[in-house]
Write a structure and sequence with these properties.
This protein is about 40% helix and about 25% strand. With about 260 residues, the protein is an alpha/beta fold.
């Protein structure tokens, strides 16, 4: 799935966005049809090894959440719960959890697999009754999909109990060393269903400014690179490139992934 010719990626320093930006209803239809049916996405969802790794990854995140919250969460809301991997990890940890998912098929499948309730819809555009209390709102690669991020930050603030946390993970696209290296080599990374529909492309600087303006205090911000970012034949070359990019992440927080834990003030 490539970027349609009528769309462009605009940049202003570390911030980038999709121009023109589609409507919310366009996105709703996209998530309920093309996004779920994209062959790459469907193949990943069916990969048992990847699903196992995701659940182990989420178990570690839950440990960090409990540490940052300072208590066992009385309720966790997973917004954009997708295939239910995070729901399953939370249930295994023994905490109450509810999902929210805009794709009805995904919500039904996640509930069937995990037993966790998943509400169908959007927390800003739909009248969804969120069960209280909510100590933690989680978005795993969801925030970069949202058309009106400030509206969602206000909605999350209204849901959270005092001292609650908003925890989310987003990609750091175009400014991360992976994309910079591709550009330096004169190559262009392909767009697929995972990047085509992002209306905004965040960096550490831009997401920090956005949260500050919205009245959130960052408790933790981490960046890192995936385990393998270059698919080259030579293991020596791949290892050298990986080491270089790792150093860039450590020195300048330019990792491909950003994880943020923030608290409304």
């Amino acid at each position: 799935m490539s970027l349609p010719p009528e769309w462009r990626i605009r940049r202003d320093g570390a911030f980038a966005w999709l121009d023109p930006t589609p409507s919310f209803e366009w996105y709703r239809e996209f998530y309920n049809s093309k996004y779920r049916d994209d062959p790459t996405h469907a193949q990943l969802l069916r990969n048992p090894r990847l699903r196992q790794r995701k659940r182990a990854y989420f178990r570690k995140r839950i440990e960090r959440i409990v540490g940052a919250l300072g208590r066992d969460p009385a309720g966790i809301l997973d917004v954009g719960s997708g295939d239910g991997a995070f729901l399953a990890a939370v249930k295994q940890a023994g905490f109450p959890v509810t999902g929210v998912e805009i794709c009805a098929r995904a919500a039904e499948a996640a509930t069937a697999e995990t037993g966790a309730p998943v509400l169908v819809g959007d927390i800003v555009h739909d009248n969804i009754k969120i069960p209280a209390p909510v100590d933690v709102v989680v978005m795993h690669h969801v925030f970069e999909h949202l058309l009106q991020p400030n509206d969602y930050l206000r909605a999350i603030r209204a849901m959270l109990q005092p001292g609650g946390l908003f925890v989310f993970e987003i990609p750091q696209q175009f400014i991360n060393p992976i994309d910079l290296a591709y550009r330096a080599l004169g190559r262009r990374r392909p767009f697929d269903a995972y990047s085509l529909h992002h209306p905004y492309f965040y960096s550490v600087d831009s997401i920090t400014r956005l949260l500050d303006v919205a009245g959130y205090r960052i408790i933790s911000l981490r960046t890192w690179l995936p385990g393998q970012v270059f698919h080259v034949n030579s293991r020596v070359v791949a290892a050298a490139l990986q080491s270089t990019l790792w150093a860039a992440d450590v020195l300048a927080k330019r990792g491909h992934v950003i994880e943020v834990m923030a608290r409304p003030e």
